[in-house]
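Researcher: Batch entry, complex prediction.
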Amino acid sequence: MQCNQAQELITALVDEEISPADRASLRQHLEACTACQLSYQQEQELQRELRRVARRVRAPLSLHERVGRALQPGPASQPPQSFRHYVFSSLAVLFRPAFALALLTLLVLPAIYFAGLTARPMALVLVETYGRIQRGETLSAGPSDPGRLKAELVQAVGGAFAPMGYDFSAMKIKPTRATVRDIGGRKAIAVVYEGQGPTLICFTFLGTEKDAPPSAQVFFDDEKKMTFYSFRVGAVAAVLHREGDTICILASTMPAEDLLALARAKARAA
Amino acid sequence: MAQLDHLYRTALHLVKNSGQAEDLVQETCVRALQSRLQFAAGTNLKAWLTKILYNFFCDQYQEAKRWLSSDAAPSAEGDIEELPSSDPGPEHAVLEKELRAKIAEALDRVPEEYRLPLLLVDMGELSYAEAAEVLSCPIGTVRSRLSRGRKLMHKHLKGYLRTPR
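Model: Structure tokens for the complex:
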């Protein structure tokens, strides 16, 4: 095999798109040709870097919001005309199960899932998403600039409220990711604090103490004149309190009493 | 939502502007729903969506692209820099930022016929067959253009990639 013949086969080898026969003859050539060996290694390295860099680029929250709105029929959304036509004009998708399943999995099921959970206290529904958010299974934005992230989150909830913005740097954790959840039409911001200390998620949404689970333990902080609601969802401890018309829930796998102390320390009396 | 990330990355490299990339992806989703009956069961949804996105780009953005394809084209660097990333430390972050900028710059310098297979196969992780379907060309063409594109990218990124021992 000549080197010029080997070049395209090297590309195919890097992509694992080579026939067994070509692979065998190319391998033989590579053993004897250091220039082509180098070329093979360079292509591998280039592909590895391109993929690594590409994977770190994610669709911004605003795009998720836009697509979500476009897929949600109803007066609150402003879908493009062509989409509205689709929603109301045809049920034929039901006859294409593969497509329907794929599309549901891709875009619609999460909305249905969260909508179905709204009959339960908002706090429970949110804290149940702790594991998924922590594992990065939900869409999230990373704050290279916390100010920019905050602005983006405020925009994502229509300017109705802002994340709490607590400073947990003393615990060696800081905000690394954030997401906006829509629970039955109510939006909630989730900010993930991570670092050397225990991971913590701070949920913020507009609400009242009625959003706490009825089974939560109630603590009244006499000094701050604030009430705290402590509850658990599996291994995750959570503490809810209200600041004005905004509800804050701190959730973490740290001991419940530590989390309660933390919430009491950070809470700002309205 | 992995498909949305992929569509956005592809759109971002095609239009080089985050706002237009979002428009392109949203319209792609709308068109996908309109064209749902054309989706063949058992085929790759990612490739199908990518083809819709690329076709729409070709239809609607050619005029704009004509204006953007010269030196006046905005680099994708600015958009990518602002996108989410983990926080591996300031020094690493600076190097990452520089590499991202160089890759965006290098991609801009690669002629479109070679750049598209790079976007689809290397960055979009499509197979040759899927990329060929998106680009409406034979698989052999994808392979040869990819080979050429990688050579050009390596040349443009010399000094920024690790040198194999």
